[in-house]
Design brief:
The chain is of the alpha/beta class. It contains 14 helices and 12 strands. The strands form 2 sheets. The chain has a 7-stranded parallel sheet, sandwiched between helices. Strands 10-9-8-11-12 form a 5-stranded parallel sheet, with helices on both faces.
């Protein structure tokens, strides 16, 4: 049986990344029957139980090397692994895994990665050195492809596909489960606006702007639901926004990626910083407004035919309110366009797994 190891940001209670692994496994198992998967995880017990895979601790070098030695292929991804905005550790760790696989003679496939920003000279040199030695690369957007070229990665074939989560079938999302969760939270009437915020290293004026817009929506009969995507950090920020509001808001308690997909399918508007909150919403045709903290957010908005979001760095209440009004005026047409674009991107997302299958043909 073919065997792969998957390396990514798994086991960290980040719903976007867990949904990404879920979507990757569905696509890979369909494309490569009998595939045996080992996932490198921060929480291998959870990962093994939740996804029906073998899993080893990502920070245990001996177990990682043992898994790589017994594999036929290393899949690195998906997600934004190769960036140094959060510090040098990410690039060093993920490229270290890649280098180990290549030294063991194992082929490496970059799966729907988002590349950059890579700002340091050392980071750029490391990406150029290691990524030029992988066997094939897919990236989730055009900008990532251009970033690779700018970094000097020219040897492996590179294809632009789409984020793995966009490969999920919208009809597989349990909307009724989402309705039940909302009902249990007291969200039982009126349209629902979902808002997802995360910690940000810069000024925290964005919290005030979001809170004031949420109050305006509540005054017009909207139910406001704050949606943390990663625990515990996002939950803290969501509660800070709720505390700044004059009206009541509901903060979604700790929920797994399946429940978050179900809840977002029942939203009427999504305002968010987190990429995968916007993707979850777009899959179900929910109009989205992005508040980018990282280039990947605007890259996604562009891919679904929407204008750039409003930067978190200098987010103003008036600008966000105007954006909300504009989106609500065009709600139906935006929803239709999203469904059309997501259907195209779904085919691209599934192409990642088809390209992996070529290694076992």
């Amino acid at each position: 049986m073919p065997k792969v190891v998957i390396s990514g940001y798994y086991g960290f209670h980040n719903s976007g990344d867990e949904a990404m692994l879920h979507a990757m496994l569905l696509a890979l198992r369909d494309a490569v029957p009998g595939l045996e998967v080992t996932v490198l995880s921060k929480n291998p017990d959870y990962t093994a139980r939740e996804f029906g895979v073998r899993s080893v601790p990502r920070d245990n070098p001996l177990q990682v090397l043992k898994a790589l030695r017994s594999a036929d292929l290393l899949i690195s991804g998906g997600g934004g692994l190769l960036q140094d905005v959060t510090g040098p550790k990410s690039i060093i760790y993920y490229l270290g895994i890649v280098a180990a696989a290549r030294l063991l003679g194992r082929p490496v496939f970059f799966y729907a990665q988002g590349i950059g920003p890579v700002n340091t000279a050392a980071g750029r040199a490391l990406v150029r050195l290691v990524a030029n030695r992988v066997n094939a690369i897919t990236v989730r957007d055009q900008d990532s492809m251009e970033e690779l070229a700018a970094l000097g990665v020219t040897r492996p074939p590179v294809c632009v596909t789409a984020d793995p989560v966009l490969g999920l079938d919208p009809s597989s999302i349990d909307r009724e489960r989402g309705r039940q969760i909302l009902f249990s939270l007291g969200v039982r009437r009126g349209p629902v606006a979902g808002i997802s915020v995360r910690p940000w290293k810069g000024p925290d004026g964005y919290k005030e702007a979001v809170a004031r817009v949420a109050d305006d929506l509540a005054a017009e009969g909207w139910q406001v639901l704050l949606v943390p995507m990663q625990y515990p950090a996002d939950a803290v920020t969501c509660r800070e926004v709720a505390a700044r509001m004059r009206t009541g808001a509901v903060v979604l308690d700790r929920a797994g990626y399946r429940d978050l997909l179900a809840v977002t399918a029942n939203l009427d508007l999504a305002i968010g910083m987190r990429l995968h909150f916007l993707i979850f919403s777009a899959i179900s045709g929910v109009p989205v407004i992005g508040i980018p903290y990282d280039p990947k957010v605007n890259r996604f908005l562009q891919s679904v035919g929407l204008p750039p979001g409003l930067s978190v760095e200098n987010l103003k209440y008036g600008e966000l309110l105007l954006k909300v009004k504009q989106v609500l005026e065009e709600k139906e047409s935006i929803s239709s366009r999203l469904k059309e674009r997501v259907a195209c991107l779904r085919r691209e997302a599934l192409r990642n797994a088809s390209l992996v299958a070529n290694f076992f043909a």
